[in-house]
Fold this protein.
Amino acid sequence: MRWTCLAGLAATLTLALAGCNKSGSSSSSANSNEIVIGHVASLTGDTATFGVSADEGIRLALEQINSKGGVLGKQVKVITEDDRSLSDEAKTAANKLITRDHVCALLGEIASSRSIAIAPVAEDAKIPMLSPGSTNPKVTQGYQYVFRNCFTDNFQGAAIADFAMKQLGFKKFAILYPANSDYGVGLRDVFKKTVEKNGGQIVDEEAYTEKSDVDFRGQLTKIKNANPQAIFDSGYYTEAGLIAQQARELGITCPILGGDGWDSDQTIKIGGKAIEGCYFSNHYSPDENRPEVKDFVAAYEKKYNGKVPDAMAVLGYDAMKIMADAIQRAGSTDGTKIRDALASTKNFPGVSGSTTIDANHNARKPIVMVKIEDGRFKYAGSVNPE
Amino acid sequence: MQSKKSDSSLAEALDATDLPSGAGTLSYSNFPLGRFRLGSIKANLPLPILFALLIPLSMFVESDVVGDYYRRIIILAGFNIILAVSLQLINGFSGQFSLGHAGFMAVGAYLAAYPAMNYSQHFADPFACLLFYAAVAIVFVVAGTVLFAAFLLIRWTRKLYQALPMVLLIAMLVWAMFDFARASAVTIGNPPKYYIWWHGADSLVRLFAWVTTHGRDAAAHLSAALPTGMVEPLSFIVLVLGAGACAGAVGLVVGMPALRLRGDYLAIATLGFAEIIKIIIRNSEPLGGALGLVGIPKYTNFAWLYGAAIVTIIVIWRIAYSPRGRAIMAVREDEIAAAAIGIDPTRQKVTAFITGAFFGGVAGAMFAMHEHSITPESFGMAKSIEVVVMVTLGGLGSISGAILAAIVLTILPEFLRNLSPTLADFRMVIYSALLIVMMLLRPQGLLGGREIWPWRRFRNPDPVPTADRDDYQGSDQTKPN
Amino acid sequence: MQEFLQQLINGLSVGSIYALIAVGYTMVYGVLQLINFAHGDVFMVGAIIAFFVGTRALPITFPLWLHVAILLGIALGLTIPLLLGYSRRDVLRSFRPFVILYLAMIALEAIISLFSRSKHVSVSSWLMAALAMVMAVAACGAVGYVIERLAYRPLRSKPRINSLITAIGISLLLEFGGQNSAVFGPTPQAFPNQMVPGINEHWRVLGVIISKGDVLVLAITLALMVILSYIVLKTKTGLALRAVSLRFDTAALMGINIDRIISFTFVLGSALAAVAGVLYSEKYPSVQPLMGLLPGIKAFVAAVFGGIGNITGAVVGGMILGLVEVLVVGYLPGGSQYRDGVAFVILIVILLVKPSGLFGKHAVEKV
């Protein structure tokens, strides 16, 4: 009796393992007439809108690329793996894409913490990785195969501080930052340094735990007591709305500033009236006047039933186009050649601006300041890189 | 005493038995490590065979036949096996339902990653790692002594007045609150001037730094004197064992208060301990804080993991199926009866905790040196629950069950993920539904508390703890009212 | 000083939510000695149902797979025991509640489709709020009943650890089921808390800001506490409840229908969780499937702190927990990072010092 149970169990396990292989071998055999690119995205979880938007942008670009004949004469296929907004899952997803699906390049992730987690995986496997929207400098530092097509926090933090001090005329700031996010901590550091360099003052600094805190009244009461002229929240959109609401409830009337992590329709939905009059920095604004922006917005709305694209969709779209262009220029799907082609990207006409990848594998792009007014994101100014 | 015909079954080999006729304080269970019996050569044969298989197996796994994807699954299964077997000792054999195993894993991982990055010079300096752990041990002993002395002092005041300890504790807490309230006047960055604990912690840190800086050079000289082939493996072993020892020490700290708790309370208390450990790690700058440690040198591979798993299984098997193990199981069944026949319940329970924590730390250390980076979030509630599910699915009190369940539960998510892309959306739903169905249809687990091998011998005496049986009428400490 | 008072008010507001959830926990544990890990997720279900009602985003009909699954389940559940030889009367009797629930679900579907088609009809927001609350309570009661019947009742005679694991499994099922895009999706959505008019307003008392929403939560918590105490102490069902929590089998010998009492307890506890869920979403208007995890555990700590099985204890425990949390955040340098640890430290301290909690009675151990 026990032998049969054991034998049955062993057979099931082997079948299960074999089942893992079936789809794997089929995708590797399809390699010869398809170019396979992987996308690690947070399709579900706390920062789901990032992943979903990026994926939508990538799919739109994919459609356009494939309809024009693909890259190097072959059709392109993008496999998206969901990491549920968790760093560990992101590593697993990246591993699976590289080892089982044999992708020749990796797109992702949006959140800096997760990009930092998957960068060494791509580096070890010599697969070029292009992050559409991670802004923390550590993502590309020291890696040969990791790139990004957006600006870094070194630029973003300084731009927000400059905008606040020069355009809005504030001098006293309070900072509320998520202590368990690479992005939040990095952005806060740069903001703080820039403010102090320009003669401003940080009157209070409070931390919260992103993805887990919903009540910020304790921190906000302390901030209120310190009497700042503006509050800087360097976190993601999941908390931005809640913070704004609770701040207004406690009687804090000064505006709140944010970074590109605020970019999502959830910010307005959750923040409602409380977040009116607040500013944040972003990669693009849908009401910009450039023809590429207009074309992209029209195409996106047509494909996705009238949904207005946010910055992550734009960055995903640009990333896909840049990657396809790099593979075309490299002339092969070899990782090292693609990497070299990516490194030499110059003045690529992206929707989010003309993209040039510099020596640190980062892109130098302008920042758009957005003001939240009447329940919509309104363009409030640009800052160009020096 | 019965003489047992040795027919070279693994059972005989690992059954370090022969109870003397009469128990008492001199029983084997109260010996420090249990009596070690060598047994015949035939009986001990399986051990070298298993280790001989190490080389061909590891060559097979590292080869291209297996592929990166499967290799990763096998290595993950290896970690889960070590975790599940170590938790089996605590949950299954000792009957203490612990939901905090991820905390021990976290301690092992961080206290292996930190010296690996900063002390071992990329595995070239085993004695520096040893120095690190020695310093940690010294600090732990000093701090422990001070705290224990304070605790004894407070308890001594009971002699003066019955409620005095409680009053003192509350007074301390109130003073702490006011002290902290005054701290809000201190500007950011200035260290507070009037906390005893801040000064205490500061002096401990200074002690640690003193020990490490003064020993560094001597350690470097000693390491240079070692033959070059030995240096790397030795560093790795020092790191893993040292991290395991630290985790064992944390197991001691967790296990001591756990003595007074039972059942559900213990579960939540251990969960709480694991969360506290995670929060402490998250707030320690040297350990990377919330962002974790990045850039840990990679050393674990299948061979090391296989060896560690074999060692774990053998050690825990020997503990469980020995007079020591029977003492632990006796304490699980009925503590008072066990105490009545001379078994010290405190000792047995705490030993189980420490041993389980040690191997949890070993798993964590190997995990850290396999992943490029670790964050406190990887060792949260989800991981604890995963390991508990493995142990329970395999059957409480069955080591082979834990191994089997660990393998199944490592493969299952991957299998479901690959079954179909739309099914991937349902993956976790199916996983949890499977769990519920399993608990309803076969609650005693896959193997029902028995071992796979050898099936004639190891009938585990009913693994259901007495207090949980439905025919139990006696005192039940989990019903406070 | 003003800041301190404000922090106190903040603490009480956080604590009253914990108190509300803790009461549900304490009831179930008092009767069944089971840590219902799924309680936090039932709380989440209540919030999500209220979200669907409030945004009038309920589907016109329930998805087909739900109907198929339930019918299949009922069919299998009826035929298999019959084949195995159980008597027809027993099987039919034990399945009666499920059939009733299914019929109720169909009736609900009819009402909802009527309701959803009338999106343009503006309804007074008080009515909407009341409707949301009622639907949440009803749905959570049903969910609690189903969970108890299908998952906990078969394990009643088995060791407690199995119930614990099953509870964890149900909690995971609810969380990941909710994250499935067919149900809710993993992204946090905004809760329409404009339903209760004036909930975002506040009063200024001595320079301290007290929001009306918090006062509402506090009032409801206290009212429920009084009602529950009345039920448990003064009614016959409450008497039966107390008997079952003291000694299972003897209560059965006294003629109490154990199954019914336990189901009643579960339904009541789940209903309380639903109320807590709706009120929580009014305060923190962001709902997502994982929202119940942490509040659930903290509420359990509050229940243990106050004395498990004791309703007043649960409320007091919740308040104190909330207070300590906010004071730690407010006054400990870097305290916001230790916020979640506070609950666990309190738990361990109380379990070591006085395991029966603040209001519990010390159990004498007999040999």
The two ends of chain C are 54 Å apart (CA to CA). The mean pLDDT of chain C is 82.
